[in-house]
Amino acid sequence: MIDLLLVVMAVIWGTNYSIVKFAFHELDPQAFNAARMTIVSILFLVIIGSLRFGRLASTERTTPDSLVSIFRTPTRLSARDAAELAVLGFVGHFLYQYFFIGGLALTTVANSSLMLASTPVVIAVISAIFGQERVSVRHWLGAALSLAGIYIVVGRGVEFGGRGFTGDLMMVAAVICWAVYTLGSRRLVSRHSPVGVTGLSMATGTVVYVPVMWGHVRAARWADVSWATWLSILYSSIFALGVAYTIWYAGVRQIGSARTSVYSNLIPIVAMATAVIFLGEPILWRNVFGAAAVLGGVALTRTTVRAQPVEPCEP
Q1: Comparison of pLDDT for 141 and 259, the residue scoring more
Q2: Domain annotation covers residue 148
Q3: Is residue 308 included in any domain, yes or no?
Q4: Could you give the CA distance from residue 96 to residue 115 in angstroms, rounded to a whole number?
Q5: Exposure string (b/e) for 213-223, b if CB count within 10 Å is 16 or more?
Q6: How many CB atoms neighbour CB 314 within 10 A?
Q7: Which of 126, 161, 251, 254 is the most exposed place for a label (fewest CB within 10 A)?
Q8: pTM here?
Q9: Among 177, 203, 217, which residue's Cα sits nearest to residue 311?
């Protein structure tokens, strides 16, 4: 059952790229992002609050402990935990979301999804630099292969200063922000429920994001937004930021991070396929070869590092 849910997760995150890009035809990207972050933050806080005050406590008698721990842990939030959540919210949700949405608006779905697919490689390299993990030669070869794949996709024929180049740079910044967020959240995830950490840090980032982007929100013509764009906002917030995250953590708890991570390799494939169908983006041979190199490098990275919980990189 969990394997089927993880395929659903990959489909949700893969299709989210095209759904978000579709909404940009009618709504400013940062206004769209402010709306979806607000919706899912409220949803997370309602769930966390309900569990904390015991409104959903009866579900614990019929739900496996491994699943309950995804939502609720008995550990109290300390002052240090709160400070770390604030920092993680700023880096992992304010900065990341700004670069992700801004980059996706300027570059293609293929470029975006493939660069985000390389996040595990970036995390491993940063961990090695700071001595958190021992990295083998095979691991470094995987990192080099992924970087070569990204170059094949975005490096050849690049126009410096163009929209696509700016978007690609923003996606690189998004990957770095998420890698820092992932490494910084490990202590908190080991002490508290992963969905709780995600929800609270996301709410913290949203509290900063919305005021900073208020000019975009105020300038948007919300009364003229079509029902299709509102459905895009709801899908991206509830399913991509809410449901898919929960499935990811359920997979990590039930079958481990290594096996769960394999399913994320489906995301760029789904993303590129849906972009061809719904956005008319072309698939070039360099996209195919680049995707193979990126995913091959990620596979090498994951098979040479000891399995441990890894934060998903929301697309």
Answers
A1: 141
A2: yes
A3: no
A4: 14
A5: beebbeebeee
A6: 22
A7: 161
A8: 0.81
A9: 177
Residue 115 lies in a domain: yes
**Residue 195's closest CA among 249, 234, 239, 236?**
249
Mean pLDDT of the chain: 80
HEC secondary structure over 155-195: HCCCCCCCHHHHHHHHHHHHHHHHHHHHHHCHHHHHHCCHH
DSSP state of 132: S
Tens-place pLDDT, residues 57-78: 454 455 555 556 666 666 788 8
Query: What is residue 257's predicted lDDT score, i.e. its pLDDT?
Result: 60
Strand, coil or helix: 75: coil
- C-alpha distances out from residue 290 to 141, 148, 162, 245, 259, Å: 15, 8, 21, 27, 23
Mean pLDDT of 212-225: 95
How buried is residue 305: exposed, middle or buried, by Cβ count under 10 Å (0-12/13-18/19+)? buried
pLDDT tier for residue 179 given thresholds of 50, 70 and 90: confident
